[in-house]
Amino acid sequence: MLRMNPTPSIVEFNKILGSIVKSNNNHYTTAISLFHQLELNRITPTIVTLNILINCYGHLGEITFAFSIFAKILKLGYHPTTITFSTLINGMCLKGKLKEALHFHDDVIGLGFHLDQVSYGALISGLCKIGETRAALKMLRQIEGKLVNTNVVMYNIIIDSLCKEKLVTEAYELYSQMILKKISPNVVTLSSLIYGFCIVGQLKEAFGLFHEMLLKNINPNIYTFTILIDALCKEGKIKEAKNVIAVMMKEGVEPTVVTYNTLMDGYCLDNEVNKAKNVFNVIGKRRMTPNVHSYTIIINGLCKIKMVDEALNFFKEMHCEPNTVTYSSLIDALCKSGRISHAWELLDQMHDRGQPANIITYNSLLHALCKNHQVDKAIALVKKIKDQGIQPNINTYNILIDGLCKEGRLENAQVIFQDLLIKGYKVKVWTYNTMINGLCLEGLFDEAMTLLEKMEDNGCTPDVVTYETIIYALFKNDENDKAEKLLREMITRGLL
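^ thats the sequence. predicted structure below, dont judge the formating
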């Protein structure tokens, strides 16, 4: 076209640029490169050309370049359109620059311009992604019927976010309002709600919505079915989960590896690893390739029932690269079965394969070291992982405190415990119980009682174990009056 004489209209070039950007491969860099060729040939772009270019830079995360094109629009004397502003806002949201996008939105509205559904959809999505679902809902209310016609996409984003935050009642209320406003729900709307009801354990309501989908002639997709199968498996209702798979296949939706993984996970949760292995074999028979999660489910299931050698054999048969979870399951099982040297070998293998260990992996090794009276080695390992930039979690410190207390090194345990409180860690009842047990072992009953009182001041409620630990120690040391007083306190609290 550039070689043609006369040169075709810029409108024709715009059609090509637009088609390239809309193609499945999203050739944004190609479109930018072709635009530069237009410039070299002194072909003047239109507002449409420049909007396409802003869109390209926005999707590539090059917001500075996108705004330089916006400046070019103004320099050429063009009037920015709704598409111009929407594309810039969408680009900022995609880049995670939500604060800047909201400020830009306010400026644009202040200048008397209007935005479209795409802009508001991007802003609502951006707010939900950073956990500001209430602000997203407020925006929906502000724009509804005033600035723009709200659509199913905007509602879906907020409903999904509310469901993920377990605010299912509010999500369902919003769904009801949506129906009243004559906005038709789709498979995404109902799947989000079904997921919400499932994660709060309301399976009856989830299946009620599933049947509502069918009545509304909304075809459930693989995601809808997988949510229900997963929820049933977690409840131990494997038979019902298999029935859902049968319904799914009848509806013409083919199970995927994820579907079978969910079923395998259900069997393993019920300690029926052999049945899970049968499902694993079905994956191969259906000409699917098991993924790393498929193997990890079986390995974890075998480890859980202490069939460590079988888990190691399965690990060796893997046809894909194991991940951190796979290694962590095996390392934990080896540590618990006393095969620590083998666990260290696996850790070395992880590093050799470029698979970084995480704090969960190291906690298993720390627990094994403390159990085998190697607390100093455990402390050295914590220092080593900190040097690697891995942040210990509360479980790491719980393991160390417990190990130190059992070794009679109460002062060292107290230093770690106090440090946790100073640093603002959410110290839970297990940690307090460990410290109380350590104090009781040293005969420091008054200190143990003081710590019991401080627990609630720090927002932690004592449990049966807390009281029983102190009461047992007091009776053992003939402190019967104090023990009986605590027993009465337990009764008052409804713990006995």
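The CA atoms of residues 358 and 452 lie 33 Å apart.
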